[in-house]
Specification:
Double Stranded RNA Binding Domain, 2 domains, eight-stranded antiparallel barrel, five-stranded mixed β-sheet, elongated
């Protein structure tokens, strides 16, 4: 019996081993390429929508930050300048840093001291004199604001923070201020303009005058005053007609002059009460007939006046005045020296 021949196995080489792996990899690549290409061929990609961010930025005046969030744009710009003395005491860089922190994002602090102007610009000037900081802040078209800060005894860091706080407060006021009237003070509306007639006051008085060192005796008569009031100050002109109270003599005094009064309210009382302090000076024509020689001459007097005035009703005051004075131009020995006067007055005019 012939033995069976042992089958001989063909040796496997590395090339035959790698063939199935290469075919599998090629198949996978083809499937992936087909899966990617099929949606692109069957469905067109939607067109890119235009971004609305630029439109929003232009319309609202805001700009997106690095994270894509829209932040409010500054409403004003601030430009600060320091004198050499203030820079040496406070350090400009330190003051700028502190001021930028206080102002936040609503007000932009510029780095330069000079540049273009504009309605949104707030200018700040810092000066130093005798350890006192003088701040001047003004927005274009607004009124200049001034403030003084005493920094004596404080170190530079604390002084710079104090100045930054004061300056930031002044800047915020300027930024929030209403725009100035383009016409300025060149005109006033008719309903807002104060009436010039309302600033005048009329005073009627029953006056007396006595010259102790003279021979005129006691003179009495009416006095009329017309004054213009501005605040508590009243400038006035007056005229008076005085006659002798003694029937044995015929003396007549016709005088005119100018004066000024300052009214001082006397606290809060149920009935308004005020003190009027002032002075009078004037000329007088004098005619006297009596036991002595006749007198026809003129004289001049200067008097002070202190009066207490009580409000009877709005714009009407009742006053009692004392008027000591001096004869500036004496006439012989009959009209000379010291004079003493008084008056009971009724004033009608504005209270302010």
């Amino acid at each position: 019996m012939t033995p069976m021949a042992t089958p001989r196995h063909r040796p496997t080489t590395d090339c035959n081993r790698a063939a199935p792996s290469s075919a599998l990899a090629a198949t996978r690549s083809a499937i992936v390429a087909f899966a990617v290409a099929w949606p692109a061929a069957g469905h067109a990609a939607p067109p890119a929508m235009p971004s609305s961010a630029p439109v929003a930025t232009v319309a609202s005046g805001r700009a997106p930050d690095a994270g894509g969030n829209v932040t409010a744009a500054p409403v004003a710009r601030t430009r600060i300048a320091l004198s050499h003395a203030a820079d040496k005491r406070l350090a400009e860089l330190r003051l700028r840093r502190l001021l930028a922190i206080e102002l936040g994002r609503k007000v932009q602090l510029e780095h330069e001291q000079t540049g273009p102007l504009g309605d949104d610009l707030v200018q700040v000037w810092v000066d130093l004199a005798d350890e006192r900081i003088a701040l001047q802040v003004r927005r274009m078209g607004r009124t200049l604001a001034r403030r003084t800060v005493d920094i004596s005894g404080y170190p530079s860091e604390v002084a710079a923070r104090m100045v930054a706080l004061e300056a930031s407060e002044m800047i915020r006021v300027q930024v929030g201020a209403l725009p100035a009237d383009p016409c300025g003070t060149c005109r006033l509306r008719a309903q807002d303009a104060p009436s010039e007639l309302a600033s005048f006051a009329a005073l009627g008085s029953a006056a007396v005058r006595f010259t102790p060192s003279g021979d005129l005796g006691l003179l009495a008569g009416p006095r009329l005053e017309l004054g213009h009031q501005h605040g508590r100050v009243r400038q006035l002109v007056y005229g008076e007609w005085l006659v002798a109270t003694d029937s044995a003599t015929d003396t007549r005094w016709l005088g005119a002059g100018i004066g000024i009064d300052v009214r001082i309210p006397l606290g809060k009382t149920p009935t308004p009460l005020q003190l009027a302090v002032g002075a009078r000076t004037g000329l007088a024509a004098l005619r006297s007939r009596g036991a002595g020689p006749a007198l026809d001459d003129w004289t001049a007097t200067a008097t002070t006046r202190v009066a207490a005035e009580l409000a009877l009703r709005p714009h009407v005051w009742l006053g009692l005045a004392v008027e000591p004075g001096l004869v500036v131009r004496p006439i012989d020995d009959r009209v000379a020296g010291f004079t003493l006067g008084g008056a009971l007055t009724i004033a009608a005019g504005p209270t302010d």
